[in-house]
Specification:
Layout (H helix, E strand, L loop, with lengths): L8 E4 L2 E4 L11 H15 L4 E5 L10 H14 L3 E7 H8 L3 H4 L13 E4 L9
Parallel strand pairs: 2-3, 3-4, 4-5
Antiparallel strand pairs: 1-2
Helix pairs in contact: 1-2
Length: 128
């Protein structure tokens, strides 16, 4: 997958994937664009869930917790489930900032919970 362009988002079916170019700290409209895409996927996708894949994002600042909560609210209102795919290291960093208080914690024996899917820090899954 070529991320050398200025593209910050990729949509594949019901999956919204953030590219390494996504950084809401320095891109003033990134959060709004993210929410517009999530809203569209929640409203238009025939899948019962919307997957927000942040495993390739270079920057996942703590402000993303608020965006993730808002994305979940939008998908809930549309009658869909939000699943967040992120790297294990990102999960552990955000967990100390309250992520586990908002989203289901992945079980110790696996990498998937109802809300979160952890991927290896070395390789993120390619979208379907």
């Amino acid at each position: 997958m070529d991320h050398s362009s200025m593209t910050r988002f990729e949509v594949h079916g019901n999956v919204l994937k953030l590219t390494p170019r996504f950084d809401p700290r320095y891109q003033s409209r990134a959060g709004t664009e993210l929410m517009n895409i999530v809203t569209s996927l929640a409203a238009e996708s025939t899948s019962p869930e919307v997957v927000l894949d942040i495993s390739d994002a270079q920057a996942v600042p703590s402000m993303m917790i608020g965006m993730l909560c808002e994305a979940r609210d939008v998908t809930d209102k549309a009658g869909k489930k939000l699943k967040i795919r992120l790297k294990t290291a990102t999960y552990h960093r955000l967990q100390s900032l309250g992520l586990a208080n908002v989203f289901s914690t992945p079980p110790a024996d696996g990498s998937v919970s109802e809300d979160l899917e952890l991927v290896s820090d070395a390789v993120a899954p390619e979208p379907d």
